[in-house]
Sequence to fold (469 residues):
Amino acid sequence: MCSLRRRGKIMTSETRPERMERTETELQVQLGAAGPRAASHRARRRAQRIQLVAPTPDAAARSPSMAASSSPIAPAPEGRGDGAFGGGHREVIKLRKRWLVVPALVLVALAFMALPTGTARADNGPHRAGWGVATDGCASCHRVHRGLNESLLRYEVETLCMSCHGDDVLGSVLNVKSGTNESTRRALRGGGFVRARINTADPSLPIPRFPAGSGTSANDTGVSVCYQDGIDQDADTVADDGCRPLIGVLAAPGALTQSSHSVDGSLQTIWGNGEIDPVANPGLADYDLECGKCHDPHGTGTYRILREVPSGSGGGGYVIPDTYPRDEDAPGHYDRTNYFDMTFTGNEATDNILKDTSAWCAQCHTRYLAARRAALPADASREDSGDGIFAFRHTSAGWGNSSATPPVASNNNRACITCHAAHGSPATAGEFSGPVPDPGAAEGSGIGAANSKLLKMNNRGMCQKCHNK
Fold:
């Protein structure tokens, strides 16, 4: 065999069988020098490269050009380099061209995935209860033999969820990362984990519920002036609607959230978790909160695929039925135009969503739940519960009892999701609200501007939406 210089290297015109035999010898030397594991890995990689240049007999039989390239190689014409880079090298080039096409096809597929799907039902896509014997949904999230955690997921939980419900590649129109329904471009009910469209500085305030012209509570008949003049006095675009306060919506993309529920599995404290306890106990510490702790990705047939019991919460179980309106029933029910009114019908007296969500939230935040004139000691609002930290509590259950004998229970709007955004809020805390401590912590230890506790208004603006002091 002869030697040629090509691109600064000494190349030989040895035949392909000779080169393969020499390579095998080199691999055996590597095996002894580097140890079995390292040599085995390099041998596999080297063998793969050899196979690209030296086709198998079957491949040669199928491709005349490849068969010709596997014959002994004559010296290459001058200027073309060694014959070892002839037919086999052309096949490598062809393969590389094909490899360039594959990423392009992947990008096209991802572009189609990014298009809104046009549906927003909770039990949908891969999240369906009762897939049946020939399910196809498992493969959307799981890898049976090469998962990344004990649940055999393709990615870690946050990454996997946001691969459909995030900003970049939407497998769902519900972008919970930025709090937007990408199909309708409206704001989502729960706010957002990174951005949210809640107008936390909304200036509207409720109109006092006194007769027109009275000016004092002495003549309060319980009838608001908004019912008497046919005017939209609270500027919420609806006349004579009882002067309901408004928390408006920001244009997309909204504002950065300041407080949110965690979705990355980092350790958190579930404030108020557990039964009434005269010994100071702020809640359950070191809880690794992520999406799947509240939502069941396999589908449940419940509202927003919420689990009956949030995983690890110790709750007693509460099912919110999947009977509330969805976007496919009437567009807008996954969205909000007024973050103060979280009912679906506009009538909390007959709409149970506030009561249902408060009971569900209380499986984690047990000692926060309190109802007007409920039974003592644990359930009543503004009565001493006997707890070492959560002694007197604002009504939060979405229902309460009347003062009649016997009392009559009825719904009201004093509920968890009236004041707080389930996913995240851009509200900020000020001079007095910023230093408010976490339960059981020292006064003044709050974290400042980001200490907004998922509230929908800056500072303590949520108080003013009802009380207007």
Q: What stands out?
A: The first strand starts at residue 3 and ends at 6.
